[in-house]
Amino acid sequence: MHYDRVEIMKAAWVIVRRFQGNGEPLSALMSRALVCAWFTARQKVSVARRMEQSRREATALAERPAAELAAEIIALENRSYLGHEGQEKLRGLRTAHKAASEREAQEAKREIIDSAKGRFASVTFTKKDGTERVMRVQPATLKFHVRGAAASDAAQKAVQARAERHPHLMPVWDAEAQAPRSLNLATISRIAVNGTVHEYAIH
């Protein structure tokens, strides 16, 4: 976080123009205006820092195992008194538990699909328009159609950035279309692989 001195000066001049003509010398008026502008700027930066800190803490909390978070939630819920701080912590834990549960469910789906390796897996998912679709994928085939380590540094960084920004997307090889596709793990309701069917409730 940094201070935009140009914007601070602009804000100070807005104050000066508002109160100019009240008989106060310009230098004194500008001095007071700068104090006000800097105070407002520091407040904004302080709020932004707190929000960023809260976001980082929430992200770190959601990366913990869902079972651990569930145990902490139960422990708090069983207390006779929580107070404001305890209630805030409970809300944060519940939000983190939901995110952790979704992450773990998606990781499990990814592992199940990958377990097909060179064989086929049938994946049922819901498209953006709400319709259901079944895709026949062959996980091990994808590596023969992407450049991987042979790709340029820029391409590899782009792939890594995409994976970090969209962890719910899984690249797969569509055996029928003979083309690479991305599956949204969050919308998968059924996976049939290695003679076993796995079904999931979609919220």
Compact description:
By secondary structure, the chain is of the alpha+beta class.
Write a structural description:
The chain is an alpha+beta fold. The chain has helices at residues 5-19, 26-62, 66-77, 83-114, 153-165; strands at residues 121-126, 132-137, 169-174, 179-184, 188-193, 196-199. It is elongated. It starts with a helix and ends with a strand.
Keywords, separated by commas or semicolons:
single chain; 203 residues; SH3 type barrels; 2 domains; 4-stranded antiparallel β-sheet; two-stranded antiparallel ribbon
Oligomerization state: single chain
Order of H and E elements? HHHHEEHEEEE
Strand order of the largest sheet: 2-1-5-6
Strand tally: 6
Major sheet: 4 strands, antiparallel
Mean pLDDT: 88
Beta-strand percentage range = 15-25%
- What's the domain count? 2
